[in-house]
Structures are given as C-alpha cells and as structure tokens.
Design goal:
It is a single chain. It contains 3 helices and 9 strands; from the N terminus they run E-E-E-E-H-E-E-H-E-E-H-E. The mean pLDDT is about 95. The protein is globular. It has a single domain, classed as Nucleoside Triphosphate Pyrophosphohydrolase (Alpha-Beta Complex), CATH 3.90.79.10. With about 150 residues, it is α/β, with parallel strands linked by helices. Its cofactor is Mg(2+).
Length: about 150
C-alpha cells in the first residue's frame, strides 16, 4: 500500500467556496476543494497554495489549519491537511497540465446551497465547515478515517 501526505485549501470568497470538478465519464464525477499530494520536502501550506494555482489558476493566501483527514483505498492511505485560505488574485483556469491529468473539467465558486445533489469533498463542507468558521477555527480538528469512494 502506498502512503501519501497531502494538503488542500478551503477558500471562501463572498460566501462561496472554491471547488474543482473531477469528472471521468462512467467512473466518477465529484467536486472537491483544491488540494493534492505534497512533493518531496515541500511544506504543507506551500503544497496547498501550489495545488490551488495548478488546479484553478488562482493565487491564494494560506490561513489556519482547519482539518486533518485520513482516507484509504485498496492501494493508498492518505493523510490530508485542510487549510483555510483567502483569494489573492488570478482568473479561474483549469487548463494546466496537472489539472487535465487529474480529469479536472471545471473550477467554480459554489454557495452552500449549490452542494445539494453533488458529491462533495471534504465532507466537512456539507455541514461542519459552516459551523466551525463561525468560531474562527480555534484549533485544527481531526475528522477521522474514511474509505475513498473513487480511486
């Protein structure tokens, strides 16, 4: 089994959260906040910043660590650190080689109500995030291990 460490960023701007859509017809179609694996000795905050740029074409400022999540598939066990973030600039663009390779077909700002009927990751975005942000993410929260639905 391969082990991986990753980082992602939950960027909220004007009441909407930045999400990328991974779509491989007949296999999966889900939305997730930008994120991915850290490269070599890359600091996790830098990995989250890089992933937002590669997947969305946006520059973001990394804020406090909000969640620590583990997930597993038959081949991979990953620990992912989710940071909060703030939009600095750029224009949404999913044409980077890294985004195309990961079957990212779209990036968009989604309001909480627009998550209905969609498969969304991290799952905290469906409920916990909105409550936790009201308290200012006082401390990172471990959210446990989940089995990956798509791999």
């Amino acid at each position: 089994m391969q082990h991986r460490i990753g980082a992602g960023v939950i960027v909220e701007h004007e009441g909407r959260v930045l999400m990328v859509r991974h779509c491989k017809p007949g296999v999966y179609d889900f939305r997730v906040a930008p994120g991915g694996g850290a490269i070599d000795d890359e600091p996790l905050a830098d990995a989250a910043r890089r992933e937002a740029w590669e997947e969305c074409g946006l520059r973001v400022e990394i804020g406090p660590l909000a969640y620590i999540e583990e997930f597993a598939s038959p081949q991979t066990r990953e620990c992912k650190f989710w940071f909060t973030g703030k939009l600095l600039g750029g224009a949404i663009d999913c044409s980077a080689e890294e985004a195309v390779r990961e079957h990212i077909v779209e990036a968009a700002w989604l309001a909480r109500g627009e998550f209905a009927g969609k498969t969304v990751f991290p799952p905290m975005l469906l409920d916990d995030y909105w409550r936790d942000r009201e308290h200012g993410f006082i401390a990172p929260r471990y959210v446990g291990l989940r089995q990956m639905e798509f791999y």
